[in-house]
Amino acid sequence: MPRELSDKPCEVTFNDQISGDKITLYYRMPTSQEKIKYTNGYVTRRGNKIVSTLGELRMKAGAAVLIGFKTGAFSVLGKGLISSKLGDDNYDPDWKAVVKQYAPDVIEMLSIHVFESSLLRDISQGAGAMEVLPDEEDDWGEGDTGEIHEAKEDDVSPLS
Hints:
160 residues, alpha+beta, two-stranded antiparallel ribbon, 4 helices, 26% helix, globular, disordered C terminus
C-alpha cells in the first residue's frame, strides 16, 4: 500500500501493557520544521554541560501531534470512559492534559513512532542486512580515542 501524502489524520494502535488492551491514537504528521527541531533537540547545553533532553522532547512533540484517540481507550475514575471527539456524550475538553498526566508513556510512544521510527530498514533474511556495530572492540578503528571533551564557551545549543 502506498504512503498517502495528505493532511488527513493518521492513526496507530499500540498494545497497552498496563490495561492489557489496545489503544488507538489519532495524530497529524509533523511538519519538516518540527522534525528538524525534534532531531536537533535530543541534547542541549546548560552552562558547561551537554544534557539529554530526550524525555522532555518526546512529551512535547508527542503531545503536539496527538489529535485524539479511539473512544474506549481511556477511562477516568469517577467519570468512566472519556472521549476526545467533540460532540460525544463522554467528551472531555481536557482530554489531552489528562492523558499527559496519567499516561505519559502513551505520549512518548507516539513520539517515538512519529519522529524516530517512521521508516525502518527491512532486515529480514535475504534483504541484505548489514552489521550496524562491530562485534569486537578492536574493530572500531583508531579514529576514536575515547576521550570526552568539555563544551567550550562558544559552543551553541541546537535549540538556540
